[in-house]
Design brief:
Length: 144
Amino acid sequence: MIIENMKKTHVAAIAQLEKLCFSDPWSEKSIESELSGRLSCWLVAVEGETLVGYVGSQTVMDESDMMNIAVHPDHRRRGIGEALIAALEEKLRDRGSKALTLEVRASNDPAIALYEKLGFQQVGLRKNYYRNPKEDARILRKEL
């Protein structure tokens, strides 16, 4: 597996993975707009010719927010999500970011377990943050 910066050639596969993994997926156009966003940092995990996961963030000043992360269901439980987050953290630190924050569905126990394993701690709760279905989001944060 190789982790690299997102390129235009990855956008369609990311959009497909969004549809597969999320009830309210980002559009291909929204994902593509991140390529030119100077605040954005998106990485992909690729095995051969197959995109198996991605992570995206935006940074303002020295604070970063993980916008999206997904691993294809057929490739889960193999450390890909952990590797993507570690690579993102390294890249963000190199860019001067001091903290990484994210929102996660309150019911997403596997993701919460991974984030806690990686040192994220809950710092808040956003009521009814998600739709389809409506659900609270736990706000997690890690100092970089």
